[in-house]
Structure formats: C-alpha cells, structure tokens
Design brief:
The protein is an alpha+beta fold and about 220 residues long. The chain has five helices and 17 strands. The structure holds zinc ion.
Length: about 220
C-alpha cells in the first residue's frame, strides 16, 4: 500500500495508517436527503486501512457495481491511544484535521441494507477513503465551526459547516472509544453534510475545509 499519512506543512508524520472509524447520518439535512431516520445514537462503521488513498491521485470507482457517491467529511487523525476516554482527553489526542471522501457504492449499500447485511462491501473497498494531508490541530481555532465544501466539475454540490453535526466531535470520539480502541494513526470521519451524489468517470472534485485547506482530486477513473 503506497498510502502514508501526511501533514500539510510537509513535516514528517510517522503515524501508521490504521482503521477509519466513520459515523453515518450525522447531519440532519443529509439524514433527510437519504430518507433515513435519526436513530438517537451515532451509527458507526469502519473502513479498513486499505481503503485509504491520497486525495490528489486519480479517484477510482469499482466497475459494474452501480452508483458510487461522494460524501465529503471532516477527518481527524488520532495521535494517542484512546479507550473508554473522557471528554477532556479527546482534543489533545487529535494530531491533525483533514478532509476525506467516504466513497459509497450506493446501489450496493441499498441492496445490503434491504437484506439486513453489513455495509462493508459498499464502503470498505480499496480506495474507498481518499484523504487529504492533515493540518496540525494547534492551527485550528474551533473544530465545530469549519465550512465543508465540495465542487464537482466546478459546480458547488456540498456546502455545510461542522456546527451542523448531530453528535459533535468530542462526544462522538468518546462514544467511539466505548466500542473500539483508537490507536495512533487511526482516522475518524465525522459524517457528511447534504448534497451527496454520484461520481462519473472523468469527474474532478475540489474540496475545501474552511480556511484550513483546499484540495483537488485527480480525474475519476474506472476500476480499482
Ligand atoms: Zn459518510
């Protein structure tokens, strides 16, 4: 696997790429567009480390598996082990903030949901988590007031702010560590705002995380 975590300032990062713990349905407007219901607690799922891939490289969508949706999300790089953690331990354990795509094979996910099966095949495939370099957390004034924007071929499709999260970062990570130990190099994805949609071969995306970072993907290709 060629993916390594990187910091935006190019300082060395020796955190090994680990699992990606994700939360679904964490923005009310996205819950509504998915015609889903808020279930009252965070909906967690995991992408393996092999899903991570640099955002700047061409995105690849699996062939013959139906629609592949983009979901732009604030990503947090974990710098210290966390298990059953207290809220006050969370912020100091975050090493960096970035932006990721929770790529989702939407047709397959619908089939799996209807059959009562887990989602991994729809969300955990190789390359299903393109991710930007990380901004060190010291440089971030307030994690809960950051704009998230995504343009598809120049058209603005997602325009949210992390203040719209149903479960905010600190309680979310506290909740996660009641189920899964987070290790240095693991990543937490915090959910997508509304405006998700299908990627097509040849598309280029531009993503922005407030004033912290702006990044372009490579053109989308078929096959992974
Ligand atoms: Zn997502």
């Amino acid at each position: 696997m060629s993916y390594r975590h990187q910091f935006l300032d190019n300082s060395p990062c020796d955190l090994p790429p680990g699992k990606v713990v994700c939360v679904g349905l964490n923005y009310a407007a996205h819950v509504a567009e998915m015609k889903s219901k808020n279930i009252g607690e965070p909906l967690l799922f995991i992408k393996p480390a092999t899903a991570l891939t640099p955002m700047q490289e061409p995105l690849r969508i699996p062939e013959g598996r139906g629609a592949c949706h983009f979901e732009s999300e604030m990503a947090l790089l974990i710098g210290q082990p966390l298990k059953n953690c207290k809220e006050e331990d969370v912020i100091k354990s975050i090493a960096g903030v970035g932006i990721a795509l929770d790529l989702t094979l939407r047709d397959l996910q619908k089939q799996l949901k209807a059959a009562g099966q887990p989602w991994e095949k729809a969300k955990g495939w190789d390359g299903a988590c393109p991710i930007s370099p990380f901004v060190k957390t010291e440089g971030v004034a307030d994690l809960q007031n950051v704009d998230i924007k995504l343009w598809q071929n120049g058209a603005l499709k997602q325009d949210g702010n992390t203040r719209q999260m149903i479960t905010q970062v600190v309680p979310l990570i506290t909740y996660i560590t009641q189920f899964f130990t987070l290790l240095p190099g693991d990543v937490v994805l915090t959910g997508t705002p509304e405006g998700v949609g299908p990627l097509e071969v040849g598309d280029a995306l531009e993503l922005e995380l407030g004033s912290l970072l702006k990044i372009n993907t490579g053109f989308v290709r078929s096959g992974n």
